[in-house]
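Take a look at this chain, tokens included, and explain the fold to me:
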Amino acid sequence: NMIRLIQDETELRPWAGDPIGARACAAAAAYGIGGRAAQFWRQNGDTLLCRVDDAMLLCAGSDPDWNELESFFPMAGGRVLLCRAGDASHLHKPESVTGQVMLRHGTTPEQDAEAEENPSPRELHALLVRCETETFHAPEFEPFYLDLSHRTRHGTALSVAFRRDGKLTAAAFCTARTDRLAILSGVAVLPEYRGQGLGRRVVHALLAKLSQPAQCVYRAQGEHKQFYEHLGFLDAFAFAELALEP
């Protein structure tokens, strides 16, 4: 067995429709295949590894060498690893986040005339800060701003928002997409505007602007299941995020 570096973006095509693999494909489209920000590897032909900054992902194939993978992660510079929950059981690392990937196929909602496409990342971050709870913490401003701006310019991210009285009141984000799959990464509604259906409406507005035949969302364990089911998403498989550092 041997893990080898991927140096041709076309090698990623088999994973473009996979909810984990699509994240790697979108990272390659945004950051390139040979730079420092993102790196990509294959093991045994059909196992995919990717690192973006200090976050890694794994799409395990038919016959992964788990011992080789475990020894590889520290060398690759990963701090956390995203994978299917069934694969996590082979890796003997503590789980920091678990949940369900939910998938949606079907018709595209009608365009919403009030939806604002790709508002300022600065305003979006301010909205996320206002929406913080005990279980949700807004990302640090600078990495969020730089990454969202970069991905939006390269066509792999799309944000949609509603504005009232001059301020953003609700937003939905897609931060990774291929020609086959779009990954929704968040929905935020200001606390004082909740209970008015804005969350569902802003997701519909985002879906209306996406051309991908399938969409998915990562739902943390025990959270927002009915919200996404009402939007047409169904549980597909369990995921886990593992802490790679001791």
Observations:
- The CA atoms of residues 116 and 132 lie 22 Å apart.
- The first helix runs from residue 21 to 31.
